[in-house]
Amino acid sequence: MRVRPVLAWIPSHSDIPLNDKVDSLAKIAVRNLPPVQNNTIAFGTGKNMILKQAVLSWQLRWNRSTTGRSTHELIPNVDTKMIFPKNRCVSVSYVRLLLNDTTLKDHQHRLGLSVTKVYDCDQGIQDEYHFLFECCRHKEIRKQLIHVVQNTWSEAGLTGSPTWSVELLLMPSCLDIFTNKQCQVILSATFEFITKSGRRL
Known about the structure:
Elements: H1 19-31, H2 43-64, H3 69-74, H4 88-98, H5 105-110, H6 128-134, H7 139-155, H8 166-170, H9 180-197
């Protein structure tokens, strides 16, 4: 059986009641609008405005994220200027320390790749703090690192002794107590320590 198509009648614009009146009122309303000012901005200004908005959105997402909290403690601001070592292996180790994802026993145990968190030196859990401040295997090279940080602390006009922390060695700029040059000195000493430790973190 053949079905014949049903042709639907679609009213024209003028067949719909009050359409002409609505059009007329719309045209009058457009004519009565205040003139729009054509404000132009320089390319550089527009770029800076977009960049500022992007950073604000990125910061909000970083603050609200439920992951990467260890890294957030070290780098709370997304626009923080980073300094990396020239040596690629040391740079990778440094970034992995920032990400709290290294070959240290504490991290490996968390991933199920090690049966214990305790290091072979039997001086406690092998985490970033243990590696940087406690492990007896790095005692000699640590002396130079501590010496550089203490001198930088004094040059910054700070009294007493530094509060030794992972943040102090990995992200001194976030403490807001050192100049950029002083931060570079501390980071260079940290990079040297990682190099001399022989560890590929």
